[in-house]
Write a structure and sequence with these properties.
alpha+beta, 2 domains, seven-stranded mixed sheet, 31% helix
Length: 239
């Protein structure tokens, strides 16, 4: 079926799942019980350059346009069927990555989507929520901002625990360290204080840490410590 961008019959809301081998978030919608993957997300997961030439390799009946809500507004993205996803995987230069991706999609993602309408991690006897390494979807929960130094940090609460954006903390500290390096350092200290979380308005999950992780990161910041602002998080505007 060549899915028309104007058709919405039987279409579910967007779901997003993360392929851990390449740390890539993949957007998917279900139409009449069948998943349609955002093509450029699949290409990124497989380390394939996304271009019109790549798209041309996929038969027309295996691709179409769908509307997605992004922070920049509603956008139309090229989506591909399960068959189109496998077709794209054949172009992956790494057979190891391609095998991991297709095996994971076939054994975990697709059975879950077809059974529950969304992707949930498997466990013995049933399904479970996100495990360590998977993202926590909190798009239905409003997040707040708090002041750290002269910059606000996004914070979202889950199960009575506040989670702070690692990227925002680094920006507040005015350091060049990227979020992944900070996450690596925090994991070495305590793997339970970092979590990838999907919040409202973002197109991909991002890294968050607890108040302990925030304090660990800020403890190495001479700029914030010199201002005695390390432990003084003030309420910012609700978002």
């Amino acid at each position: 079926m060549n899915y028309s961008k104007n058709s919405t019959a039987g279409e579910t809301a967007m779901e997003t799942f993360t392929f851990n081998a390449t740390d890539t978030a993949i957007r998917v919608k279900t139409v009449e019980g069948e998943p349609w993957f955002a093509a450029k997300d699949v290409a990124k997961a497989l380390n394939i350059s996304w271009s019109s030439a790549t798209l041309a390799q996929i038969p027309d009946e295996w691709k179409g346009m769908m509307k997605f809500i992004t922070p920049g507004g509603e956008q139309e993205l090229t989506c591909i069927t399960e068959a189109g996803m496998y077709k794209l995987a054949f172009r992956c230069q790494s057979s190891e990555v391609a095998d991991k991706f297709t095996n994971w999609v076939a054994s975990e993602v697709l059975p879950s989507i077809r059974k529950t309408g969304r992707y949930e991690m498997r466990r013995r006897g049933g399904f479970m929520g996100p495990r360590q390494g998977e993202y926590l979807d909190l798009r239905c929960e409003p997040y707040d901002t708090k002041w750290l130094g002269t910059t606000t940090v996004r914070v979202v609460e889950h199960d009575d625990v506040e989670w702070y954006s690692v990227a925002d903390i680094n920006r507040a500290m005015q350091v060049g360290t990227d979020a992944m390096q900070s996450v690596h350092n925090l994991r070495e200290a305590n793997p339970n204080i970092v979590r990838k979380i999907f919040i409202f308005g973002n197109t991909h999950p991002a890294w968050f840490t607890t108040i302990t992780g925030l304090r660990l990161l800020v403890s190495g910041s001479r700029k914030l410590k010199s201002r005695s602002q390390m432990l003084q998080l003030q309420e910012g505007g609700a978002r």
